Write the structure tokens for this entry.
Amino acid sequence: MKNIRNFCIIAHIDHGKSTLADRLLEYTGTISKREMKDQILDGMELERERGITIKAKAVKMQYKDKDGQEYILNLIDTPGHVDFTYEVSRALEACEGALLVIDASQGVEAQTLANTMLAKNANLKIIPVINKIDLPTADIDSAYEQMTDALEVIDQPILASAKEGIGINEIVDSVIANIPAPQGKKEDPLSALIFDSFYDSYKGVVIIIRVFDGTIKKGMKVTFMASGAQYEVLEVGYMKIKPVESDSLSAGEVGFVVAGIKTIQDVKIGDTITESSRPTTHPHAGYKEVNPFVFAGLYPYSTSDYDSLKVALEKLQLSDASLTYVPETSVALGFGYRCGFLGHLHLEIVRERLEREFGLNLLVTAPNVIYNVKTKNQMVTIDNPAKFPNNAEIQEIWEPYVMATIVSPTEYLGGLMDLCQKKRGKQVDMKYVNMKIAILKYEIPLAEIIVGFYDALKSVSKGYASFDYEHIAPQLGDLVKLEILVNGEVVDAFSVIVHKDKAQTAAHFLTEKLRGIIPRHMFEIPIQARINNKIIARETISAMRKDVLAKCYGGDITRKRKLLEKQKEGKKKMRQFGKVELPPEAFVAVLQIDK
């Protein structure tokens, strides 16, 4: 066990984590030159397309040092985007150390700060690495200064270029020398932490574990301590890009377990596995339950796909523990699910994965946040604008707030402050790391940042500013419910909660946008925006006109009048009973209110 090292790579998005993982795999001989491709651990098509890591990946590397001593290095490559912080926090629990990667040209960014704090809170040994030193724009002195001032990491960093393979041997040597070997006893009762899982159509649920005490082997009867479910282990092994079977996994090791688990609900990320006949008295504390912060409705285009969507969400939740869902019904869209996400990017990724991996066609409603509404009788929690109480009953509305940390070059501070103020932000702190870099802290309503804020931030700062946030206590807000009526009927999927000052603008924007998107019908369609039962904006889609006089050439005017009156009556009746077809683009219009 003294020759095992468990470590992960943490960094801001696009600082070179996945490239560094590629070089480590090559250097330790885990993968041959022939099999090698860029970002090899990012196996998901979506990850390779976007150039980001979405899922944390565990891989075992075997390495022999110059003295002939053999080591097992268990590496976990983690995501860098703020929406996947939960993936990072779970990976940290399974490690004793972390490589903190900082881009030499970008320096310390917002997620670098956040991930360093996570690693310090988990009591991990941090090894700083300044990456991309080969770039012409690299400023190693500035990156080092920011690392010591902003992160308070005083260890001498390793200078590296993952792309060119510079400094890789120093990194491996430092991991072996500085990261402590795992603690634990092989002879103790089995205690293993589930930190990830995925669904295999042949093997059922495959769970990824870190063994803290004891040994797990094929044929052993094990108990999942949270659910109480018992299974017999059919296969154990470790991940070497692809799963490799082995006889057992002992204390300190990371690997996978197959136990023929078909009931997906039995597996809970953060649960402890122990031997049924000799249970442990020290179950792992598990993970802090994550609360979703952004909610949206997912509806299949065809109602026959409802069951397929349910199965797909169950399977996806295995590999993405932060996703939550409950069934819901909409008057306009039928049956679907109300899903909870950690952020807007998380929502996008889940939707794309459901469509690609499970072949579904989905409609997504506008994302919204949770509000606490105080009525005359009670305090209610609302995650769907359609369920908002009547205005007469509402006494107070509490909306969720975040503490946003923005790291930016000083020349863009004016534009960034202006952007935060437009989003109803309150400045809390401003700190200069050095003459070129500053850190801004703002309290901002979560609803203002879930759509479009990240893009606006990058646009204002020409791509240089970075952004991270943490949730703080909710605050009172002057908010109203904006409803959209199409042909006199409320379409619940278009209902949004907006600030009183922005209500009029949002109402005009939505009605105009929908008038351009909804196709013309044989009858006139009014589109109205309503707040507190008062119509504040209206647009009308004119009817398509059939020429009923085409067959009359010449003749008496009374005959023509009779035909026109008949058409008028028919249109009235049609408008009363006719159904308005809403195209999918109409639901996207709600997403663009902020723009």
